[in-house]
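Protein in question quoted for reference:
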Amino acid sequence: MPDDLRADFANLAASLRAYVEWHEDAGTLGFPRAPRPQGAQPAPQAPSKPATPPPSRAPAPALAPA
């Protein structure tokens, strides 16, 4: 992957992380969904699975000042 594309993805990921953290700090409980059309059926639920621990994640890189 070219370095400039890698840098673009890193910047996008950092921006998205900052956006989500801002909402978390602000106490946002969720994001609104578009209303379903009248008579629309809800999406089928996936069969329940036993809980598994999430995969370990490396810490995100620190945000650079813009």
Q: What stands out?
A: The first helix runs from residue 3 to 26. Helices lie at 3-26. The chain has a mean pLDDT of 79.
